[in-house]
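Question (not urgent): is this output format expected?
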Amino acid sequence: MNITERNIWKLNNLPPMEYCSLARAQKLLNCELEDILHWHDIGAINLCLKLNPTPGILKIAVLSHQEKEVTSAFNPFTSVEARETVWSQHSHIRSILRLEGDIPTMETLRGNTVTQFNVKVFASGLWHPHCRNLMALLEAPDDILFENRLSMMLPDKPFVYCHFIPEEDERPSISLNRIYITSQAIEKIYAHSISARPMDVDEKSATGSNPLHPAGINRPAAK
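Got this back:
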């Protein structure tokens, strides 16, 4: 009786990788590129987009009683200091500067008081795109797909959400060679390939919705 190896890294004689390219994941999982894009588009997994340093606004929401854990990293209004703040191993932010005149807003979410801040930053590294139409990269390869909103990967702060909104002229284009997949997503796909059970879908991820924020709109443009 054949016993199926349930650890994909052991199966491939590799130590676990934190993330890898889609081409590498195809080989590990023995699947097609469109399979991976499909699983992302339906909200079963979250792929990542690699950003070069990009200016924009970070929209942060925290439970109001925990906001001091986050605001301690904000630079003063008059600061010109450029420093990197580590809130995630993969999603990097630099020069966190409060917007002058910005007043934190407070909303109630599921019975909890939530405070939202808007801060000016430079973002780089790996971020989760909100686009749930990555199959368009195969269906219309000559079109250019831009991302208007991204979410921080695995933040180590108690955020309700942490979204990055690039400046209009700095919106990153989405291309296959800039998309990566995490080890968690690879392991989830492999586990369900063994069991042949459908992958659970995060409805909020699949629609790009957020209880407090609508999703960004991704507009393809012809070259």
